[in-house]
Amino acid sequence: MKINIITPMEIESEKVKSAIARIQNKKHNYNLVTSEIGREATAKAMMNLPDSDINILLGFAAIVGKEEEMPNELGFGKPIEITATSLYGYEGGLFENGKPICTQPKLNLPSLSSLTSDKFVRTTDLVEKTVIDMEDYTFMYLKRPQDFIVRVISDFLPAIEAIEQL
Hints:
By secondary structure, the protein is α/β, with parallel strands linked by helices. Helix content is 17%, strand content 31%.
């Protein structure tokens, strides 16, 4: 099986290379693509992918909530599958301007929803366990039915007070 793994940042790509190098008796061929951060960069990468059986968007993500209040499977460094994503307002405003896109889970991981924005999300008025990322909506919109998103929890966004605009 040919698998494209798309990572938004080089640091994520390096971690994937390291993980693949540890796999003994590989049954699949892996191709790594670093798309850069953002919806436009993800779209450009998707339009130029080599042929594959599966595409995986893999990277780090922040999740809304306090780490100490999350279940163990949603702790720091844990992988999650994104099965629903929507486009949030420009510059992270409070309005939603994109219809949510949903898919069926493909992995035995917790399935969560993601919000994507043109800029960083600047509000804390979000549902706990929502993932904040900048590429998920575009990938979900362009992906094939067999493709999927895996995010590794790298940060927590406690909803204590609104983030001030700079």
